[in-house]
Specification:
Number of domains: 1
Largest sheet: 8 strands, parallel, barrel
Oligomer: single chain
CATH superfamily: Glycosidases
Strand content: 15-25%
CATH topology: TIM Barrel
Bound molecules: ligand G3I
Number of strands: 10
Number of helices: 14
Length: 326
């Protein structure tokens, strides 16, 4: 393994460096696959393990994409983070329009979790068990699952995942609560309550979808990570990207590099922060332009697969950390 890649420097610095993977691209674009294998040692399926893809019809499971990623990860000595067992998006129509009773929904969710976690036992090191269950004001978000099962769907999901693979590290994952504020407090209260009740939760994923105008202060991120560590929870930056107005200017690319640097430094400052992942590999395949028209260039590599200033900044921070200059 080349010494100066993100993955090798991160390993020396004591964290993993990851990316969300678009499996359709992985299967068809050799340059994307090479870049992924060279720079990252942790992968999260961007969509391949979500409910609507894994179980498009009731009882018919499709693991084609997920299996391909697992194989790739094994071949390149990468860890896999499973994403996501209970979430209110990307649910199939048969489920959302099925008029199921509470007991039926519990049975469906339980089967879904058991099937996925059992299939990948020993091959998926960690799971985003639940995502985005907290609202902007810090209260529980009202979703398909909370309405159908009740607020205890979260605790149940953690229990079912743990029963299926007692070795897997189980996480709660959310956006917009990375630093200080009501959402960050709401997430803290939620995971603290799960811990208090003895639920098998081991970590919190701080997604970190940011822009130049809207990003948390690195200091607040560090403080938040420390308070989570104090109740026994690991933290992970799970989905970082930093969108820019297109076409991106050199000034904005530099500011973006500073944002990545600051968030990585926050993670490295807290021993319980164990990984740093970007939500995608190159700007060509990022979710941002589709969801935020006019915005893009949010990742470390450009549409031409070339390293951007943000990549160079991240690599510098990792180099310093790897040589003990954290
Ligand atoms: O399945 C169809 C496919 O058949 C078709 O060829 C393709 C063409 O557009 O669309 C496919 O569905 C899209 C799917 O991604 C797979 O590419 C959906 O339209 C699209 O809405 C979906 O978007 C994903 C989004 O979650 C859904 O909410 C993004 O790729 C994915 O990056 C994004 O990821 C989420 C995390 O899971 C949770 N945290 C926030 C993050 C960003 O929203």
């Amino acid at each position: 393994m080349a010494a100066d890649t993100l993955r090798s420097l991160a390993q020396s610095a004591g964290i993993r460096f990851g990316a969300a993977v678009d499996v359709e691209v992985l299967n068809t674009d050799a340059a994307y696959a090479r870049l992924l294998a060279r720079e990252f040692n942790l992968v999260t399926p961007e969509n391949a393990m979500k409910f609507s893809i894994v179980q498009p019809e009731r009882g018919r499971f499709d693991f084609t994409q997920a299996d391909a990623l697992i194989e790739f990860a094994k071949a390149h000595a990468m860890q896999v983070n499973g994403h996501v067992l209970v979430w209110h998006q990307q649910l199939p129509d048969w489920l959302t329009q099925g008029n199921f009773s509470r007991d039926e929904l519990k049975a469906i969710l339980r089967e879904h979790i058991q099937t996925l976690v059992t299939r990948y036992r020993g091959r998926v090191a960690s799971w985003d068990v639940a995502a985005e269950a907290v609202d902007e004001d810090g209260r529980m978000r009202e979703t398909f699952w909370s309405r159908g099962i009740g607020p205890d769907y979260l605790a149940l999901a953690f229990d079912w995942a743990h029963a299926a693979d007692p070795q897997a590290r189980l996480r709660y994952n959310d956006y917009g609560g990375e630093g200080a504020g009501p959402k960050s407090d709401g997430i803290y209260d939620l995971v603290a309550a799960l811990r208090m009740k003895g639920r098998p939760i081991h970590g919190v994923g701080l997604q970190m979808h940011v822009s130049l105008k809207d990003a948390p202060h690195a200091r607040d991120v560090r403080i938040n990570m420390k308070r989570l560590a104090a109740i026994g929870l690991e933290t992970h930056i799970t989905e970082m990207d930093a969108m820019l107005a297109m076409p991106a200017t050199r000034t904005d690319l530099k500011a973006q590099a500073a944002l990545y640097r600051d968030m990585l430094q926050a993670c490295l400052a807290v021993p319980q922060c164990r990984s740093f992942s970007t939500w995608g590999v190159t700007d060509r395949h990022s979710w941002i332009p589709e969801f935020f028209p006019g915005q893009g260039a949010a990742l470390l590599f450009g549409s031409d697969n070339r390293a951007k200033p943000a990549y160079l900044g991240v690599r510098r921070v990792l180099r310093n950390a790897a040589s003990g200059k954290r």
